[in-house]
Amino acid sequence: MNVLLWHLHGSWTTAFVQGRHRYFVPVDAERGPFGRGRARTWDWPASVVEIDLAAARPRQFDVVLLQRPQELDLVARCLGVRPGIELPAVYLEHNAPQGPINEMRHPIADRPELTLVHVTHFNRVFWDAGSTHVRVIEHGIVDPGYRYRGDLARGAVVVNEPVRRARVTGTDLLARFGKIAPIDLVGMGAEPLGGEDQPQARLHGLLGARRFYLHTCRWTSLGLSLLEAMQLGMPVVALATTEVPSAVPPEAGFVSNRLEELEEGIRCLLREPDRARAMGRAARAAALARHGLARFLAEWDALLEEVAA
User: Fold this and answer.
1) pLDDT above 50 (res 4)
2) Are 231 and 143 within 8 A, CB to CB?
3) Are 108 and 132 in contact (CB under 8 A)?
4) How many angstroms separate the CA atoms of 55 and 252, rounded?
5) Strands 2-5 and 22-26, bridge-based pairing
6) What Rg, from alpha-carbon coordinates, does the chain have?
């Protein structure tokens, strides 16, 4: 099957393109938001092909995977077809909704020609999709392997744009937790372990050296960085928000909205490295079982075949 999609979220797309299809990603000279082309810091297979969307033809594709409202217009303008009508289409929503609860209506609500896919059951509950067909396909992860050493009595957190999104991502809490253990911050706009161009394999090794993974997000979809840390074998200290309580079992770390309990969890991991290692192994087992690549690709294959039929 030939699948058209934009390179939006590198980690998610890295898992998706491990499937058995051919994937076409638009590219432009600026490699801007709608033309990034192939990833530069993730390992993508040769089945991912860059294309100039303006020169493409709709019959090149069996299905389009949409991820932003603007992509509906791009398909109509560049390919001359209506997504979901002349070209089978799936809309993937990565995010939890923003705004007052009664106004959390999805941009493609009441579009029965489309299928809306959420990455968590939490997101499905909060978004109002009206009559649009809705599915949930939880994240899948390319297994980075067991990389945990935990020899550094420090924590690690991965957050993009930590200043602009301070309360959303909980980075305002890092100073408090940092009084108990040093916390290394990584992500776009956060440089201590390397910036956004950091190769994933090297970043995984750096994370695995830290004693624990800290997840402070208050309101966000389930972070792939959290699941990657779990598959690395890192024990977790996390706020009990959105999908986290379901994704992180009690034996894998400390999950609570009581900050004092999380502080005590950090102290425990610092003074008991063997317990930290055992929790990390439990975290890895849980993440592999629920967020393994085989399940993820099988569910996506089934949906793409259904939509394209």
Assistant:
1) yes
2) yes
3) yes
4) 49
5) parallel
6) 20
Question: Could you tell me where the DSSP H helices lie in 128-255?
Answer: 166-169, 174-178, 200-208, 224-232, 244-247
**Nearest partner of 18 among 50, 51, 45, 37, judged by Cα:** 45
Q: Read off the tokens for 54.
A: 């303006």
Burial of 139 (0-12, 13-18, 19+ CB in 10 A): buried
CA distance 4 to 176: 44
Which ranges constitute the DSSP H helices of 34-92? 69-79
The single-letter code of the amino acid at 263 is E
Read off the pLDDT band of 189 (50, 70, 90).
low
Q: What span, in angstroms and rounded, lies between the C-alpha atoms of 199 and 288?
A: 22
Distance CA(248)–CA(282), nearest Å, equals: 9
Domains along the chain with CATH numbers: 2-140+293-308 (3.40.50), 152-291 (3.40.50.2000)
Query: CB burial class (10 A; 0-12, 13-18, 19+) of residue 59?
Result: exposed
- Whether the CB-CB separation of 269 and 275 falls below 8 Å is answered with yes
pLDDT in tens, 255-281: 999 999 999 999 999 999 999 999 999
Q: What is the largest CA-CA distance in the chain?
A: 62
For residue 32, give every residue at least 6 positions away whose Cβ sits within 8 Å of its Cβ, in sequence order, or none.
none
Q: How far apart are CA 278 and CA 281, in angstroms?
A: 5
